[in-house]
Amino acid sequence: MTARRFLKLTHGWIGVVVALFVILVAGSGASLPFMSEMFLAQYGDALEAEAPRPGAPYVDIDAMVRTAEAVRGERFNTVGILMPHTRVPDVSTAMVFGMEEGGDPLYPMMVSVDPWTAEHKTSFSLGDAFGHDMIDFHYELVFGEWGATFVSILGILLVAFALTGLWLWWPRQGGLWRKARAPAMKGKASAKLFQIHGWLGIWTALLVVVFALSGTATARPEWFGPMLVDHEALEPHGGAWARTCEGTTTPGEAAQLARARFPEKQVSTLYFLPGEPIHVFLRGPGDLNAIEGDGLVWVHPSCDGLAQSVDLGEGALAEQAQSMMFSLHGGYFFGPVVGTLLVVVTGLSLVFFSVSGVIVFFTRTWRRKKAPAGLAEAVSPAE
Length: 383
Description:
Elements: H1 3-31, H2 35-43, H3 61-72, E1 76-82, E2 94-100, E3 109-113, E4 120-125, H4 130-140, H5 144-169, H6 176-181, H7 189-219, H8 251-261, E5 266-271, E6 278-283, E7 295-299, E8 307-311, H9 317-329, H10 336-370
Antiparallel strand pairs: 1-2, 1-5, 2-3, 3-4, 5-6, 6-7, 7-8
Helix pairs in contact: 1-4, 1-5, 1-10, 2-4, 3-8, 5-7, 7-9, 7-10
């Protein structure tokens, strides 16, 4: 068996086996650029707020937290804040999130707060948000951590499909540009479909590789070893950070300390889990991480003024790469218009590759079975 035939069979059989899963993951991924529309359609103007005047500053972050805790009561334990236009780009309210007794830690309670008045707008469990359901489905299908691992493996397979497809498509005779410019569109319907499959695959191969690898790197950065350094590996431990002081650092105070470290950036997200430093992410123009930002400040929860900061966009190459992975995978790195277009085109192309690949594979197999002995090797769609 030649190397070319081996790659054909491998590309085809593995593609057929995982085609349905590629359709589900790619199809749900193509919908995620419209996550803001999903949230706003479900919760309406409860996720929208308007500044009282141009350039008006937000109220203190502690005021937002107090509003959420007053609305939800003593059973509510705040663990973080999403500032406006962060994780869900078109949501203009702040989202204070936390856990309630007996709640699922994977689905915190979200409290929408007007960032200019600290007025409560609405509250909902993240598990009830359709937009978040789509994120979950894209990340793990319906199989939890096992599903997340499978989807991550699928990302690696997509890279392999792109590379083997490129090798199989590469013209063995004739001009490269002539073949890349337009499919030949000769032969039967299955042959034409095969030609479109290969032609579109060539023009989208780079996008498939970028989005597949960044998706796997976002979900399973540990698979890439020292090539990616997660910010959790940089978190301060020991020494002064192991102490417990008598004071209490509020989220608002932590945000003020963080802004002093990065005056050119704006606070985007805060996480304050029990027993850990307060994490404050700050975002500025040109940051590699277009969602949370490259600025990260850890603030001690009880020792006054103890903070450590890092600009992930100016760190080692492995730190920069990890900082941009989620932003790259979601298309945010390319801007709202171009990013949306690239994600949708890549997702829909993968759906087309899966459907057309299955049709061509079984058509070719059926034709080979029907061909007389000695002619089977010659029966294949035009390349």
